[in-house]
Amino acid sequence: MTLAAAAPPYEGHDGEDVLDMWICRFGPSEPGGWGPHRHRQHQIAWVSEGLTTAVVEGRSWVLPPTRALFIPAHAVHDTTNRPPAALHCLYVWPRACPLGWTAPTVIGVGPLLRELLLALSGPDLQRVEDSARSLFFGLVGTVSDRGVEVPMPTDRRARVVAETLSARPADPRSLDEWAPALGTSVSTLRRAFSDTGMTFTDWRTQVRLRAALPLLADGVPVAAVARRVGYASLNGFVDAFRRHFGHTPAAHFRP
């Protein structure tokens, strides 16, 4: 008999039952990757420097300092930091949260919200007082993009394509080239990628943008980034980046 997998654990904090909202900071030496877990509270994950990858219920987002992610209570998630990231995790009980969000939601972090988060964070768990909580939620606003989310296809043949391109985003092969190598048809692969909610072309763009973010964060010149993630021209990369994020690569890490 096959045993059901154990549900990911709930993680708690000392004193959480008497707090409405609090924030924890994990320094640049902390890589994260604690494993799938849950909280009874909503969580907002944000890095003040570097990058973090948040995986929530099987969906992933790459987040720079200009983005945070709202993670609803009880959602199974994990975060992995790319050193020297500085991760700030804000927790709020649903009863004290004015947001009606029930799904992971990307939050734009502008200069004022950034300074508030930095002021609230300390080396240990810090209580967020009512006045700061009101100010925080008054500043929160969603952004038009969803971060960089790359859902994986479930079809085993399409998954070979997806895993290869995730590892080597500059691979130029089209579905016309992949299909005979995998013993399937182009229409089957196209349909499998459509099941992720996007076309193969759009899916590949997401993979390339995801691969570009760590390079940009490291200060690699934009033209070199474009080449390394598979764009034949700088303009093509910048146009794809602007269409998705609403601004140029150079602006992406500016608060």
TrEMBL record:
Keywords: DNA-binding, Transcription, Transcription regulation
Matching InterPro entries: Cupin_2, Homeodomain-like_sf, HTH_AraC, HTH_AraC-typ_CS, RmlC-like_jellyroll, RmlC_Cupin_sf
Coiled coil: none
Pfam families for the chain: Cupin_2 (PF07883), HTH_18 (PF12833)
Entry's transmembrane regions: none
Key word Transcription regulation present: yes
Keyword DNA-binding appears in the UniProt entry: yes
Residues in HTH araC/xylS-type domain copies: 155-255
PANTHER family given in the database record: HTH-TYPE TRANSCRIPTIONAL REGULATOR NIMR
Name the UniProt record assigns to this protein: Helix-turn-helix transcriptional regulator
Origin organism lineage: Bacteria, Bacillati, Actinomycetota, Actinomycetes, Pseudonocardiales
